[in-house]
Structures are given as structure tokens and as C-alpha cells.
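Q: What structure does this chain adopt?
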Amino acid sequence: MVKRDSIGALAAGLVLLGAVGAGAEIYTWTDATGRVHFTEDLSRVPAQHRPDARGNAVEEGIPGRVQTYSAPPAARAPRSAAASTPRVGRTHRIRVERAGNGMMVPVSLNGGPPVPFLIDTGASYVLIPQSVADRQGIDPGPAARRERFSTANGIVEHTLVMLDSVQLGSARAEGVPAALSPSMTFGLLGLSFFNRFTYQIDAASGLVTLTENGLAESGVLRGGRSESQWRGEFRSLEIRLAENDVRQTRTPSSRSRAHDRLDQEREALEEQLEQLHGEADRARVPDAWRR
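A:
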């Protein structure tokens, strides 16, 4: 049995959560690209980051604390009144089917008919095939933001959407950030769903146990994101804007077409940043979380 504590998602990547034993300390550190990592083994943290990692260490199970990765969702969807009451400690047990080396489950999106998803706690987001989104009327709209993700096949860019709800068996999460994939056949049920729960996955018996942690309802997650997730989202766009500035500087003035393309790219990035601030405003995210 693998036991993993919630939460996680990564602004520019799909990463696996390692198993965490009861009472273990979790160390966090941020690399030069802004990617946040965590481990229970301090020796895995690069030497230059160990002082900060020690200072940020959190013992698993401390109430109100959460280990996070930066995660980029899209505009926040309305939430029902029922979501305002935390249901900490409520446990759900769901049977799963093996699909090769994976586990397949029926998942309902926005209250729609169940569709097959593979459980992937290494995926930062719920990833929805575009064909499923089209059938179920999940439309992010023409102004939806896009985000870059790091995968085993390189960098990809997906459109973002905020789902009203994602339901697996009796376990329901509301306001779940997701990404749309034009190439996937099956969806991936990733950490933007599982981060609402402490979860146990027993692959041998085909059983997933989810215990609600109440982080979204209590305000630790705002607009589907934690403080470090919001910080990572803003940092990602700021880094891309800085990279654009560097390319502008290094491009000879004689290359007018290249400068035009860079200008258009900068305008698009500035628009995304403005949209992100709008999302943060609606989620009542403090200014300190935006830096």
C-alpha cells in the first residue's frame, strides 16, 4: 500500500509524489527555474538549498499545514453553498480496475456522465481529452489562458479550465483546475483532484481510500490554489516576460519581423498576467501571494 499526503501540483511539470511515512519531515526547495520540489530525504536536496529546506521542513500530519507545488488553473468557477462547510475526516473508499500497469476509474465532470480516467498522482492536473470536453460542453472560451507543462516528451502547452466539480465515487471536489489535451485518449485524474484528500492507494486489492482534508473550504486553497501555487503561477509568467526582454535585447534592430513576433508574444504574456490578477482578485488572494 502506498500512502501519500495531499497536496501537490507543479506550475511547469508532471512529477511523482514520493511515499511519506507517518511523522516524517518533508523538505521543500525551489530550483533556478522556479520549480518547487519536496522530499523526506534531506540528502536529496542540493547542498545550496539545504538551509532553506531545513527552515521549511514540516512534519506530516500537522493540522493546517500543506506541502504544495505551484499549479496554474484557469478562471474560478462558481461554487455551491454546500461547499462552504468543511467535511474534514470524511472517508471515501472506491474500487478501481486495473488497466495494464495503471488503474482506471469512472469520473464525473461537472455532474456529467462518468467517463474513464486513469489515476495518475504524478500528474499535476486533472487532464481532460479534448474529445471528452467537447462532448460534455466543457468550453474554456476564446480568452482562456494557456500554460506550459514539462512532460517526458518535452514542453507542451495546454488550455486551462476550472471545473465546477470532479467526482470519483462518493468523493467530490469543487473548483478543480484542469487542462485540456488534444492528443489524450483517456483522461488523467491528477493532483488537482487528489490535493483535497489524504489518500491511500492499494494497487493489490484495487482500492483507493480518500479522506477529506478541508483545505479548500478553510481557505488554505483559494481559487483552487495554495499560497505557493499562486506564487509559482505569477513567477512563471514573470520569468517568461523577462526571457522575452532578453531576446528583444539580443535581436538586431534590423530584424523587424523578429521584433514584431517578440512584441506580439509580450502582449500575449501581459494579457495572461492581467487575467491571472483578475482570477486572484476574484479568489481574494492577498498581494503577498502574488510575489
